Fold Helix-turn-helix domain protein.
Amino acid sequence: MATPRLVELIDRYKNAHGASEAELARRIGVSRENLRKWRTNGVSRLPDRTNLAAVARVIGRPYREVLSAALFDTGYLTDNQAAIPRPYDEVLHDAISVLTEASRLTNQPMRQMSSGQWEADPDPRAALRIDWAAFVTEALAGAAANAGGIDTILAGRPGSWEASVVGDVLRAAVGHDEWDLLRHRTEPVTVVLNPERILFDHGGSNDFEEMEAAEGEITRRENAIRPGRVYSGDAEPQSLQWAIDLGYEVRAGHSPPLPTREELDATMAVADPTSLSPVEQAEEDALEALSALRDRLAQQYRADLAAYGERLAHAVRTKLAALQLPVPITVTVDLDTPWDQAPQTPTVGWTTGAIDTAIADAIAATPTPDSGPGTTLLERAEESLRRDRAERASE
């Protein structure tokens, strides 16, 4: 099972500070066994508020973040619910509430005791209001960093006076080149790499053409054994030439109508099944071998994509690590989403934020599956199939 989100938060602190499991459990106010059960069995019920508050205090994360993780783990909150954008007015109301709450925050000054030591002045009248403008600037910088950059977060209406004012504030805070922006990021960086989409977007690879050529070669071999049929009246000239190139038998006119169920039943009723002749059996065996090769070709193509994806993931992790981001970084490889349904790939020269630029640079520097010396995709599939057959024969 996946690691519960609450445990992930605790583990990040544990790994970063070298705290023991027993010490963490003691500080949180739960038994070590209870913490172990959270890890192995999941968080089955919502922990007490005091425990969640203790987790937030110990690991130094906002209470709302800890509560949100616990709500996810216990099913009170789901990814689908979290993915649905909230209404504009609702988000605006929350933002106003947070900024209003911040305006009431105070700093407690220190005072020196008769012993010479310092302590917080307990007199509430001594409290000093926080620098609210600095708070707002920090919040804006954090939001811009989470969004991917100043230009990205202001892209909704970049020419407005509001965008100009907010942009000036942010650039004054983090520099015109955004050199100091990333340290304000609060959201983890999650990168999902779809190797097939990346190959399509970058256009510098022949993998798609190589796969098409390999499938075409297998079709030609099949048609050389038992040709398929194409009727000239059913095909466009370009499609007809494609069929000829693949070895299909071209017949004049239109294809005959498909037999009805009654005609099929009548044919089966009078059929006299006999064993295949040696020639027919050889054809069947050859076609079965080509069918196995076609399956292995698809497996080899996926294996090549997986290997390319791992190289990409390593390169992206290295580039992102160099940014020294203050948040966790997760890079995964997705081989299952069809390439045309996967998000577009960050491309060198077309990115703005430092994170997307790092990803684009990593992708550009990673060799594609067809860039190295060696055999073709079809040859690799054939060799893989031969190895499997040799291993089975030796058993």
Notes: The chain has a mean pLDDT of 88. Residues 207-255+280-389 form one domain. The first strand starts at residue 106 and ends at 107.
